[in-house]
Design brief:
mainly alpha
């Protein structure tokens, strides 16, 4: 049986887009954390990316909850 997340990844374009964006933000954050020192602009970007990532995660969790409720 598929989890709500697996179901959405397999069949929902919006969820797929959100997951892709989340992954891209994670990759960029990872590249920033590899640096020993961050410029002021990079520090701002890091904060911005963390907020964007969290917003996407919240949207994805809401969608997962909706699917879970519908299948219950």
């Amino acid at each position: 049986m598929l989890t709500p997340r697996d179901h959405l990844l397999a069949s929902h374009e919006e969820f797929q887009r959100l997951a892709q964006e989340h992954s891209q933000y994670s990759q960029r954050l990872e590249s920033l954390t590899q640096k020993r020192y961050l410029t002021d602009d990079e520090k701002l970007e890091e904060v911005r990316l963390k907020k964007l990532k969290l917003r996407l995660k919240d949207q994805m969790l809401d969608m997962e909850r909706q699917v879970a409720r519908q299948s219950a």
